[in-house]
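Appendix B, example 12.
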Amino acid sequence: MFDGWRIIASVTLFATLFDIYLNHFTFPSCNVILPSNVNSKAEIFADFEDNPQDLTAILVSNLLLSGTDSSFVDVFFRDFFMSQFLSKSFESLKPDMLLILGDVSTKGFQLTSENWSSLVQQFERMLGPYLHLPFHVTLGDRDIGECSKLKASLVHRVASSFPQLNHGGCGSFEMSNVSFISLNAMALLCGNNELLSDVETVIERESAYLQTRTEDGREQRVKVTAASEVSYQYRWRDNPTSSQSGPVLLLHFPLQQISKRYCSQESSSSTIWNYFPDSLKLLRSAFRTDADSGPYDLLQTVPPNATEYIFQALKPRIVFSAHSHEFCDIIHPDGTREVTVPALAWKAKDDPGFVVATFRKNGDVTVKHCSFPRESHVVVSCITIFALSISLAVITNLFHRLNVRHNR
């Protein structure tokens, strides 16, 4: 039997080792990602230095919170570590704002109003220390449902929980002279639906605003031509502004991409989980969930006609999207850069991550891809720390008993 003080000592040892682990191994690892049309870091950094007027944003996606349906593993393991990771990230990166690109919930579209409120409270607990910063949430398919479940009343309820979103799940705002527009990409993906007209209205309004240019201090208004029908319901208006002169575009689904080969994707299935012995397979299944299973198609993108419509109407400065769970960085044919933000939740992938974007005063955008520790590595580390603490306690107790016998 352990003496009381030895139990206390083993618990203290575990707590100390665990605290050392949290303080030294939960900082994100970040790398600057160069656009494919830039040859070297020297080229991208040549024309600017850090400026206090630069705007830095952390972009995350796929929090996949479950509210009242959260499991023991979610509450006492995943949520705890994710809060620690986010805390270290905000501490080291010091962002000016937070952008969340959809799938806050696992199955938000199935929740009652009461359960949705519980999920929002879980969201606030996880991000509470950082919500004093300006933040914006873009809606994902898990939040408002796929096409067959897409209803205006549900979107209104979900959108009303977050700032700057209208009833249709779209929004526009400005920070430090940087304009942002977020779209309900689910409405664009689903074609004819009751929310599409709201998305079109937001796009057309922003397009008309872009056509009001300021040159030499004088307001120059460009005449808007009559709309013509192109690609079923999408309406075109001539937009004389140049590419990448519009707002920063935020949406959950990626735009129609040139090719998946441009994406730097590493399969999260190649992890330490695969090397666990059969006796520990049950441990793995306890940590894995069905969050990334079911009817969700991770290759879904905004249709080509809607993508072309967005490029023509908005001339986005840069596009940030999500949904695929993987980081991706491509240049579209018109020169527009699109960055796909990886999933943040361990439910989605073993190696979570996020993106840091710095909007420079001179118009450049610097993108960093940041990674957190793999869930499998954290599990093994925690087990190792626990086993080490117990082993030291047992060894200490054994030496104590041997010493007592020797003295006798």
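The chain is about 35% helix and 15% strand. The longest strand covers residues 353-359.
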